[in-house]
Write a structure and sequence with these properties.
- By secondary structure, the chain is α/β, with parallel strands linked by helices.
- The protein has a single domain (about 45-325), classed as Spore Coat Polysaccharide Biosynthesis Protein SpsA, Chain A.
- The protein is built from 13 helices and ten strands.
- Strands 3-2-1-4-7-6-9-8 form an eight-stranded mixed sheet, with helices on both faces. Strands 5-10 form a two-stranded antiparallel ribbon.
- The model is unreliable at about 1-5, about 10-35 and about 330-335 (pLDDT under 50).
- InterPro entries: A1-4-GlycosylTfrase_dom, Glycosyltransf_32, GlycoTrfase_DXD_sugar-bd_CS, Nucleotide-diphossugar_trans.
Length: about 350
């Protein structure tokens, strides 16, 4: 009897081992990162829940950097009742990740209740907009700044179609934006396109898309981005300089003071990676744009450095800080993303 029992247990163990082996061979999938209630929610259903916060990844990258994670996590923390979307070109419509893919960053983000990851299908996104004809005839392989240009186009189309707030993936949210329709000033009389928000089908964005196509120039960095926003802003508004920390009104949208998102200008971007005697309060800011595009020297966020950026991570994206940041012996290196401008 004992021998039969041992034989039965051995067979059972053998089958169990075989099952586990086959399981480990299966490709990873986005659904594996998402709780079941999340995987059942489509993009359209989510957008019906109210104003969304939108981030884009227009490269094929499938491992978000710590800065991307911090941007998304901080938005989810500031807007707990709103869906926070990360649309990634590298995801396909079946939500499949590459075989043998492991992603602590995606796992971290997917565990946040109001964060949702979706594929970015540009052709579908551009349908029924002025950008569709441009997209279907462009040869992206010859475009020097394609990742940035496609990101510029995608953010216009998405916010025009669905409304919400677009943010670059190097923007750390610190408090809610009180405006529905707004552009963010990078400096006096010059608009950023790194943060903006509108209700669906706002005519300003439709005109931006028309101008994008009519005045397309792929050889000048930013021509389809902040330069485009500024060109149209000057058509719509009689611009004047800001007075103190007051926003400007332009017809039915606001032009927000540079302090709201750019209290540290692009020329001073290294200040984020320095230790301050007294750190700024940022009391007049809604979010902080870290100017990652300027960081060509690869400055890193290092745990224990007491730099301004480390302290921003610790306060506004604590999960990212805890799980993804390393100390001086294993510093997180910078990776360029087209959503970082």
């Amino acid at each position: 009897m004992l021998t039969k029992l041992q034989f039965s247990l051995s067979v059972t163990l053998l089958f169990a081992c075989g099952f586990l082996y086959q399981f480990t061979l299966k490709p990873s999938c986005l659904i594996c990162y998402l709780p079941s209630y999340k995987s059942q929610q489509g993009l359209e259903a989510l957008l019906g829940r109210g104003r969304s916060i939108v981030f884009l990844e227009t490269s094929e990258r499938m491992e978000p950097t710590p800065l991307v994670c911090c941007a998304v996590e901080s938005a989810a923390k500031v807007y707990p009742e709103q869906p926070v979307l990360l649309l990634m070109k590298g995801l396909n419509n079946s939500m499949q990740l590459p075989p043998n893919s492991t992603s602590p960053a995606l796992s971290l983000l997917s565990a946040i209740d109001n964060v949702f990851l979706f594929p970015l299908d540009m052709k579908s996104l551009f349908e029924d907009t002025p950008l569709f004809s441009w997209y279907t005839r462009i040869n992206s392989s010859t475009e020097r700044f394609w990742l940035h240009i496609s990101s510029d186009a995608s953010r216009l189309a998405f916010i025009w179609k669905y409304g919400g707030v677009y943010m670059d993936t190097d923007v750390i949210s610190i408090r809610p934006i009180p405006e529905d329709n707004f552009l963010a000033a990078q400096k006096s009389q010059f608009s950023s396109n790194g943060v903006f928000g509108f209700l669906p089908h706002h005519p300003f964005l439709w005109e931006c898309m028309e101008n994008f196509v009519e005045n397309y120039n792929p050889h000048i960095w930013g021509h389809q981005g902040p330069e485009l926003m500024t060109r149209l802003l000057r058509v719509w508004c009689k611009l004047r300089d800001f007075q103190e920390v007051s926003d400007l009104k332009c017809l039915n949208f606001s032009f927000l003071h540079p302090q709201r998102f750019y209290p540290i200008s692009f020329r001073a971007w290294r200040r984020y990676y320095e230790v301050w005697d007294t750190e700024p309060s940022f009391n007049d800011s809604y979010a902080l744009h870290l100017w990652n595009h300027m960081n060509q020297e690869g400055k890193a966020v290092v745990r224990g450095s007491n730099t301004l950026v480390e302290n921003l991570y610790r306060k506004h994206c604590p999960k990212t800080y805890k799980d993804l940041l390393q100390g001086p012996e294993g510093s997180v290196t910078r990776e360029q993303s087209p959503g970082n401008k």
